[in-house]
């Protein structure tokens, strides 16, 4: 994949992202994407790291998520507005860009609404592979909205999860999730409560959208040896787990300065000890150390994961032409003559 001229940037719109996922195959896409995510976590110390730049409002949040490994620069624009579903809009939408650090020129512009769902699920699976008990095959999915099927597919692709226990306060969401996943060979149980959903589960994934302190899981619902994948808490004032669960779990996070503001651990003291996922994946510290241990991945999403996703998509475009060239950059024949290029583009004067 090469652009013919410097002004053209490959653009992956929504249709092309869907084409790309189908061309690769969704399970292969998630498996390979998880490999990119894990690889970049192992390169963690190379990256510029900063908490996302957030603009909060009573109805939601708009965020910018930048990072660089010194060779490539990436950023994502993303929102989170739970009320949007009432007007037929997505709760989360996003787009992102990957650029060349050496020249500053963009290399890729991409939709990231679908891609964020894929990378969030891939990251969850990367963490669970390191933290869940070996042989974990049954997952409770509490919150059956837009993220739920992606989580199920990633856990299937990476860990071999084949049994799902679904619950949502909206039975229609559970029915839709069950229908969407039916053809992939899961054994699926629709549950009448969160308490029922966690029965017998090796992994509990919470992925709810309400922007408030909530108790999706209470302490008595979490048995020994369970791995919790807490996805829904992702901004100040929004959590899903009772504080007592945190106090008896081994907690793993992406980037502590961000997670302490946005994650489940915002409920704890600022110096409460947590472990970083990159240290587990790079072999510096152990993950799960006991089959009876409760492990918690306090997932809020971090810029390196979006970087990994953009990097993966760009690499796939060499084989799958699922993009269009976007005339994004002004590129005059003489780099210093931008004004001249503008004037030469004026329509010819009509003679009187």
Key descriptive features of the protein:
352 residues, alpha/beta, ornithine cyclodeaminase, domain 1, Rossmann fold, seven-stranded mixed β-sheet, 32% helix
Structure, described:
- The protein is α/β, with parallel strands linked by helices and 352 residues long.
- It has two domains: 8-114 and 305-332, ornithine cyclodeaminase, domain 1; 130-301, NAD(P)-binding Rossmann-like Domain (Rossmann fold, 3-Layer(aba) Sandwich).
- The chain has eleven helices and 17 strands.
- It has helices at 14-24, 26-42, 113-131, 148-159, 171-181, 194-197, 243-247, 256-262, 277-281, 303-316, 338-344; strands at residues 8-12, 53-57, 60-68, 72-80, 94-100, 106-111, 138-142, 163-167, 187-190, 203-206, 213-217, 227-230, 239-241, 250-253, 275-276, 295-298, 324-327.
- An eight-stranded parallel sheet has the order 9-8-7-10-12-16-14-15. Strands 2-3-4-5-6-1-17 form a seven-stranded mixed sheet. A two-stranded parallel sheet has the order 11-13.
- Strand 8 (163-167), helix 5 and strand 9 (187-190) form a beta-alpha-beta unit.
- Helix 2 (26-42) crosses helix 3.
- The longest helix has 19 residues, at 113-131.
- It starts with 7 loop residues before the first strand and ends in an 8-residue tail after the last helix.
List the helices and strands and how they pair.
Blueprint (H helix, E strand, L loop, with lengths): L7 E5 L1 H11 L1 H17 L10 E5 L2 E9 L3 E9 L13 E7 L5 E6 L1 H19 L6 E5 L5 H12 L3 E5 L3 H11 L5 E4 L3 H4 L5 E4 L6 E5 L9 E4 L8 E3 L1 H5 L2 E4 L2 H7 L12 E2 H5 L13 E4 L4 H14 L7 E4 L10 H7 L8
Parallel strand pairs: 1-6, 7-8, 7-10, 8-9, 10-12, 11-13, 12-16, 14-15, 14-16
Antiparallel strand pairs: 1-17, 2-3, 3-4, 4-5, 5-6
Helix pairs in contact: 2-3, 2-4, 2-10, 3-4, 3-10
